[in-house]
């Protein structure tokens, strides 16, 4: 029996707020875009599902009261998932700051002139710090598999294993080309060069951090089927990046199911308009 679901088939919420608005949303296995005016419940729908999944354990037994999921295959009890939020608000610098169960030393994040006059670090900085750790683990796993394939004489298979990381690096270099930033290929952690200066991710602009966080989140899942929830991920992103966002994600992992909310027409411009659902259309 398969343990992890490939994707979510349906989200059903008994009541969105105070007994009002019953939600039934039939999902596409790959791309799902939720639209609607401010306050209609887009973020609430995502938050209710993610809050239930974040409780841990088998999802049918721990989902919040009134939230029901159908998945494929239907007998799976677990879902791999990530949640991307468009937050770059500042936090005050303190000895440590929690992100879930992870304690993040400020001295680790604040290498270099983090934010300059901002005098602190942001939620995106914490997210990028944690993603750096996952990126290191991802590289170790890929490296071990490459060694295994080489020992078996499978040179082509070994080369193929390294292609996704290389594509990620090329992708980021291309997206950041206008500012002259390039990923340092000789570093295990992500560093950038710009006009002879070495930069850490916390020194990027809000839009660059947001895009890097999204692409890193997808890469480190290592081609596994999983669900990527995104709540207005286009905030801070250049319009050209918004247009390419879904395509970039699917290129890095074609097995991801995207479930996102957006206010931006640009996000759907590359052929995704038929994947848009209005909140009112799934309210019964």
How would you describe this structure to a colleague?
- With 284 residues, the protein is α/β, with parallel strands linked by helices.
- Helix content is 35%, strand content 23%.
- The protein has helices spanning 42-53, 59-62, 106-109, 123-151, 155-175, 206-219, 239-252, and strands at residues 7-13, 23-26, 31-35, 67-72, 81-85, 90-92, 96-99, 102-105, 120-122, 182-183, 192-194, 197-199, 226-231, 256-261, 276-278.
- It is globular, with a radius of gyration of 20 Å.
Distance between the termini: 34 Å
Q: How do the strands of the widest beta sheet line up side by side?
A: 5-13-14-3-15
What is the number of E strands? Answer: 15
Beta-strand content estimate: 15-25%
Query: Which class of secondary structure composition applies to the elements?
Result: alpha/beta
Radius of gyration: 20 Å
**Poorly predicted sequence stretches spanning 5 or more consecutive residues:** 88-107, 109-119
Shape: globular
Approximate helicity band? 25-40%
Count helical runs: 7
Q: What is the average of the pLDDT values? A: 86
Main pleated sheet: 5 strands, parallel
H-E order: EEEHHEEEEEHEHHEEEHEHEE
